[in-house]
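agent> fetching stored inputs for the zinc ion docking request
agent> found them:
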Amino acid sequence: MHSWPTPSVPPVPGEAVVLRLYDTADQAVKAVDVTPDANGEVGMYVCGITPYDSTHLGHAATYLAFDLIHRQLAANGHRVHYVQNITDVDDPLFERAARDGVDWRELGISQIDLFRSDMEQLGVIPPRDYIGAMESIDEVIEMVSALLGAGAAYRLDGGDVYASIEATEQFGYESNLGRAEMEHFFAERGGDPERPGKRDSLDALVWRGHRGGEPAWDSPFGPGRPGWHVECSAIATNRLGHRFSIQGGGSDLAFPHHEFSAAHAEAAYGVPRMAGHYVHAGMIALDGTKMSKSLGNLVFVHKLTEEGYEPGAIRLALFAGHYRQDRDFSYSLLDAATSRLTRWREAAGREVSEAEALAVVAGLRAALADDLDTPRALAILDAAEGDHDGLVAAAVDGLLGVQLQPTSRTMNA
Ligand code: 5CA
Ligand code: ZN
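agent> prediction call returned; pasting tokens
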């Protein structure tokens, strides 16, 4: 699947600062393992959208957090291999398409198009590999076969295949949840604890046998379609190797999705740990309630840009809070961000010494390297008195994706 155009990212002045991020598995902030893979790159996999409704500010916030990581790794001189999936075969798509009387494939295509244009407007660096579930059926079949071959999965009636939570000793290391919490989130987030015949109520579906009215692909275990978690395991590891640096998404993916994505890959390949870091962004709410498609309390990126808000202001509104914090979005936050951007632009027109400008850049790099401390980064820029030869502007653009020279795009908005 094609992704979206790459924004221009200027080189960032100043010295590299080692990037440290909170890892959900180790429950600590630690340095990102930037040991290059066989291709000399740092691998990052971020779970993509389920394209049945427009991108909202919550999605945007999560992808922007990983964009900050991407930009920082690049500014530190690393080549990043960024992979993202699209869950374009899944129940929510079928349900929404049936409700609206449209083909689920068409619905997916139209929502992916909207997502691409939102990401482009926000200046998010695109994944190099942007892979739909439909494009990766063979990869999933291969992984399910490997799981069955390793005795890590079993078949039930109806052509369903389940992976056993007993398959890896380390199961649970990623989310660090107790059994009761696992059961709670499993039931809440797409699991099927009540399915008769499962060896453990938490075992996860890796292949769903064909049911009437659902799309199906042929496989050695009968016609059907991929389970959710295994899709991400296959797409990630086939491009980034059995072990890669960062696996990411919103905090609602920590369990069961990322626990099982890791467990499936670890069981299939016999490796102890799929990703060096499991990184999770907090949930964005509107007036105190988590923004979600099912609740319908959504603020859309394209609506904000149509209303004339600058992409840079949308970024700054979301960066005003820490990425791991569950937090509220509001128009007052957006208006404050717009004013902030205006003040920064005025300041950027004032000349300061090179040393002063480089000190601001160093502060910005240090704040972001400290588990993406954007509130501190923004405070440093609030206090900056000016710029020197565009050094600060280049760092703000390169690291935060915010332009201090209004572009023609933003001036037309
Ligand atoms: N397709 C799967 C991942 S394989 C999926 O979760 N899709 S999604 O469309 O539901 O969500 C896409 C990303 O946005 C996920 O990382 C999810 O955690 C994140 N997300 C969803 N709602 C919010 C929210 N309110 N705030 C922040 N991030 C959110
Ligand atoms: Zn995923």
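agent> quick read of the result: DSSP finds 14 helices and 14 strands in the chain.
agent> awaiting further instructions
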